[in-house]
Write a structure and sequence with these properties.
Structural class: alpha+beta
Low-confidence stretches: 64-72, 99-104, 131-138
Strand content: 25-35%
Shape: elongated
Mean pLDDT: 80
Largest sheet: 13 strands, mixed
Number of helices: 10
Order of helices and strands: HHHHHHHEEEEEEEEEEEEEHEHEEHEE
Radius of gyration: 39 Å
């Protein structure tokens, strides 16, 4: 670089000249030791140009946005070359006393149009960025609660509704419900006590969507189907094949795999007593007893020997240990048991 020559050249530069100068653009976009040394020194010696440099730098930085105008770099270069040629021809045919006419020259009109274009790009980018920020701010945050076997939990949703979650179950819900609906997704079993309001409360399971406004009900979604037991209020159940069923208090709907459904009355303590730590067996066969014990206490139970098909057990326990429950079953149902830590064995006598 001819330092002296460039010093003299830049003294006569206007806004559009700086915006078209490759060395200046390089410094604005990708400053390094060489170009920074030159321009810092040049500005120190030409402080009257600092405002002009600031404006040119600002406009050049606008070009770094991801959105690009339809004018390519080649088009920009051709535009500037045409501007310069036009200006040189104009200056050759006019005297110095007409220098104020530069305001209306093609060169300045083109630069003004270019500045407007870049301003439009800047405005578009800021608007687009704000819209993206608004989307990110309104993006829904979801919360997932999963309860391991042998445990139970309860939680309060954002609208004040209470959910009791049984062992081995999972629920997903938004931190803040939308303005139009309250939707949660359930795997396993939960008891809902829903706050009454205008927004419908919906429980999404693999088999159906349960919709209410304000009510208390139990939902159990498992491999053997879906059961919805209504305690208070009214529930609408929409299954996956388009059926719609309405439940009234003390009615339970069971949807079996394949779509078959049954509506019947139910024992509230048997179906929903678990949320109050009631372990209820009602004419349960050995497989049902073992499955409930494994889920309730988080243990593994091995069935030894043959149990007659007529074997059944009924009993109610409130917040009892596994050993006490096994002892109670053994005293009335002809079984022996062995309990070692998280494993147990049951054999028919």
């Amino acid at each position: 670089m001819d330092l002296k020559k460039d010093y003299l050249k830049y003294e006569e530069y206007e806004l559009e000249d700086f915006m078209a100068d490759e060395f200046f653009i390089q410094w604005v976009r990708f400053p390094d030791g060489d170009n920074s040394h030159f321009w810092v020194k040049w500005l120190r010696e030409h402080p009257q140009k600092s405002q002009l440099i600031l404006e040119a730098s600002h406009l050049i930085r606008l070009m770094r946005y991801s959105y690009s105008p339809e004018l390519s770099d080649t088009t920009y270069t051709q535009l500037y070359e045409a501007i310069v040629r036009s200006d040189q021809q104009e200056e050759a045919s006019h005297e110095k006393k007409n220098k104020w006419k530069w305001i209306f020259s093609f060169r300045q009109v083109a630069v003004f149009a270019l500045v407007l274009l870049m301003g439009g790009i800047y405005y578009w980018e800021i608007l687009n960025k704000n819209q993206q920020e608004e989307v990110s701010h309104t993006a829904v945050d979801y919360i997932t609660k999963e309860v391991p076997k042998g445990m139970k939990t309860s939680l309060i949703l954002e609208d004040g509704s209470k959910v009791s979650l049984n062992s081995g179950s999972k629920i997903t819900f938004p931190a803040v419900f939308s303005d139009t609906a309250r939707l949660v997704t359930l795997e396993g079993e939960a008891f809902f006590e829903v706050e009454h309001e205008d927004r419908p409360f919906k429980v999404q399971t693999a088999e159906a969507v349960i919709e209410v406004l304000g009510t208390s009900f139990n939902v159990n979604s498992s491999q053997i189907g879906l059961s919805v037991a209504l305690v208070t209020g009214k529930v609408k159940v929409n299954d996956s094949i388009g059926n719609r069923m309405i439940l009234n208090p003390h009615e339970m709907l069971t949807i079996h795999p394949g779509g078959k459904f049954v509506k019947e009355n139910f024992d509230a303590l048997e179906i929903a007593g678990w949320k109050d730590k009631y372990l209820v067996f009602k004419y349960s066969n050995i497989d049902a007893v073992v499955e409930k014990l494994e889920d309730w206490y988080g243990v593994e139970i091995e069935i030894k020997g043959n149990f007659p098909s007529t074997w059944a057990y009924s009993g109610i326990y409130k917040d009892e240990s596994l050993e006490n429950v096994l002892e109670g079953i053994s005293q009335t149902s002809e079984i022996n048991y062995v309990l070692e830590g998280k494993k147990a064995g049951i054999i028919h006598r």
